[in-house]
Amino acid sequence: MIDLCMRNNYKEHFIIENRIEELPALAEKIEQLAEHWEFQPDLTMKINLVLEEAVSNIIYYAFDDDEIHKIEISIIKESNILTIEIIDDGIPFDPASQKQPDISLPAEERPVGGLGIFLISKIMNTVKYSRNNNLNILTLTKKI
Amino acid sequence: MKVYKEKIDKFSVLNISGRIDINNYSVFEEEVNRLFNDGETNIIINCSGLNYISSSGLRVFLIAQKRSISLNGNLYLCNMQPVIKEIFTISGFTSIFKILDTLEQVLTVSNNKSG
Q1: Which of A50, A61, B49, B52 could make an S-S bridge to B19, C-beta 3.0–4.6 Å?
Q2: What range defines the domain where residue A96 resides?
Q3: Which of A103, A104, A109, A142 to mutate to test binding with chain B, by most B CBs within 10 Å of its CB?
């Protein structure tokens, strides 16, 4: 595991395969990192939530073949800004352009699903998508 | 995630602890479905030990509430940790669920209603 730990700058990099079974191990690594970087438990929970939503979305929807694909996740803390970057080589998909659910609807009318990307956009301060050659690059930042 | 079921007064109480995530939400969903399938309409989900939820878990809660409403049932949630409550708030779920601070409050409120 690469660990470039400086005074106030922290960076960690993970690579997982496009299998949903990879997620518990990723969550555990984030827990360890959060302890090391002295995150509040609430922040750790939210970061894990954001990663689960973003990565599971990629695993379920980004690939139209049965090949194994790598998904790269970088987490960077620079003073009070946390940046998460997720890179995959799936089909182009911009989560930032998705329609937001109407959360004012009563239970009977609320559609089931569609909350994942919405949660990411509410928890993080910025959500930026770019396409570089054959790569989707999702960059999320949060003030901490 | 651990799920422990008990009966308190007229309520079936589902005590959940740990994580509800994309890898295990179906276990929680099965437990909730079993209650409804057994004809239970007064249900409390006690979230005191719940420390992680993602959209896959929220989805199960929403389905449960839809089913409860269609049966004219009573579904209460209680003992939510602040960060879980925050996720419910962000999702607009605090306005579609009856969420109380403690299990005792649920029992008091429901007794007052029936009395």
Answers
A1: B52
A2: 9-143
A3: A103
